[in-house]
Amino acid sequence: MTGEEGLSAELSATAELLSRTGDLDEPSGPAPWLVRQVLASQRDDEQLAHWTSSTVIDDNVQAPVFDEATFAWLHRGLTDVYDFPIGHAGLMHTYGYLLSTVVTPYGLKRQRWLTSDLAVAFGKEPTHLQPTASETPLMERVASTVLPALSDPVGTTRVVLAFDEVVDTTNAMRTVFVADPGSGSTAVVYGLVTSSRIQIVSTFPVQPLAQEWARTRLSEPTRYRFNYAPPTASPGSAFDGATEVLVSRV
Hints:
Blueprint: H1 3-21, H2 32-42, H3 45-48, E1 53-55, E2 57-58, E3 63-64, H4 68-74, E4 86-88, H5 89-99, E5 103-104, E6 107-108, H6 111-114, H7 117-121, H8 138-151, E7 159-166, E8 171-179, E9 186-194, E10 198-206, H9 211-219, E11 242-248
Antiparallel strand pairs: 1-4, 2-3, 5-6, 7-8, 7-11, 8-9, 9-10
């Protein structure tokens, strides 16, 4: 069994225990490092503010990618109140996805955190975003990695395509693709841009972009993507907006 396979098995055992008991105990649980990181992230208001809201119902499978017990544990003790299936994107897309055992058309959600593609695409060490690589919580490592490109795609050299889907005069949904010039590893980060802040929805590795794919994507109708949960609309719904290209190097 490889290190990745062993870690995945440990996470599956942890997910089963959490679903069955509704709680995880740090000293005796199968993944004490996960409990420590989740608790640290739950208590860090500055890091929590870097992320917006998301639904646990995946757009591809049209079903929750983890259960209500896991959702409740992830959001325990937060100042903001979340009701299943809408929760905090950072806690869900990092730790929740690590605990997800639902297979999507792209595989398990946790794979993005167990492989090196995402970190390499953003110019980090290959292990930088692997969950056990550091005691620094994964949610914090992810935010510090992707926020520069999301905040300033024009000034980020690895950005190959970036565009805003403008919702109204103060809100836009931003999609940024980055690529490593050596390996070709490519990733996307998606977030909410308002007049006062920029918040992450999700990030994950993708296939290298082709010109035809980019043209097709830019011509698609504007809608909410990647399981973002807008406050006044349904996740995945279309909106009457315009697409503004910020960077195009495809």
